[in-house]
Design a protein that fits this description.
Length: about 270
């Protein structure tokens, strides 16, 4: 998640939807950058609104431009299937070992998804308790450059030209379906049925984005709001500042050095 008071936006990062690359590029515009999962990198709209109620009472949630990313549900499910099919997860010491699919087909994976909530789709990530969407604009992964360029016509940012050469956190490139799976069309039909609400949001993105782009929204200057946020939530504020510094270093320090820094951070934290 990226919180920009100076430009008046909050960016939400739906996992496995191209959010890490956008998060990295947008971090230069945010005063608070939450890059670690445990600190709120993938915070949902409702959790942020609830956890920061004291702040949003004084600076309404509606005052900010809230936007995020979205991925077509069949593509998202296949991506998670590849992630949890990775043989590396077979190691009992792997942090995601409990998610290892152990050779299950994608049909069996969908069977599991029919009864278990294993990851957030657009519905659970962006839907608020009152039934409304918690975002004003969504960037589709399959139209990431076009949707970002359109947003730049309203929001004072400049990142779309960098998207092609910025690629972080790629998924394991394993099979999209295991042995004995149904044909792709049948699988996709099952996924769309199970994730019908997510599909509904995805299909409404054009309408949502057009409504925002034609709304006449102008970025407010909320620099004073940053001081209030820091006073109300000193620990998250400090963590957001640390992560912003880390992302700034990533732009200037070669990748091998950043990996060394990450390793040292892990050693020190243990």
């Amino acid at each position: 998640m990226v919180f920009s008071f100076s430009r008046g936006f909050i960016f939400f990062g739906l996992p496995k939807s191209g959010s890490t690359s956008l998060h990295y590029l947008l971090s230069r515009y945010g005063e608070l950058v939450f890059s670690r999962i445990e600190n709120g990198k993938h915070e949902t709209c409702q959790r942020l609104r609830s956890n920061c109620d004291a702040f949003f009472t004084q600076h309404p949630y509606e005052e900010f431009l809230k936007f995020g990313v979205i991925r077509e549900p069949t593509s998202l499910v296949r991506s998670w299937y590849r992630v949890w099919s990775n043989p590396a997860l077979a190691n009992p010491h792997h942090p995601a070992h409990n998610r290892w699919l152990d050779g299950k087909s994608i049909d069996e994976f969908i069977d599991i998804l029919e009864t278990q909530h294993l990851f957030d789709g657009a519905e659970s990530f962006y839907r608020m308790d009152d039934g409304s969407l918690g975002v004003d604009y969504l960037i589709r992964l399959d139209r990431i450059k076009q949707d970002t360029e359109a947003l730049e016509g309203v929001l004072p940012i400049n990142i779309s030209h960098e998207l092609a050469r910025t690629r972080f956190n790629p998924s394991y490139k394993g099979p999209t379906k295991g042995p004995g799976s149904n044909p792709d069309k049948v699988i996709d039909e099952r996924i769309r049925k199970v994730f019908a609400k997510d599909m509904g949001i995805y299909e409404s993105v054009s309408s949502l984005n057009s409504k925002f782009l034609n709304s006449g929204w102008q970025a407010p200057d909320l620099k004073k709001a940053e001081k209030l946020f820091g006073r109300l939530y000193p620990q998250p504020y400090a963590l957001g500042k640390q992560d912003k510094l880390y992302n700034t270093l990533k732009r200037w320090v070669p990748d091998p050095c950043m990996r060394l820094i990450q390793k040292l951070k892990q050693i020190l934290s243990n």
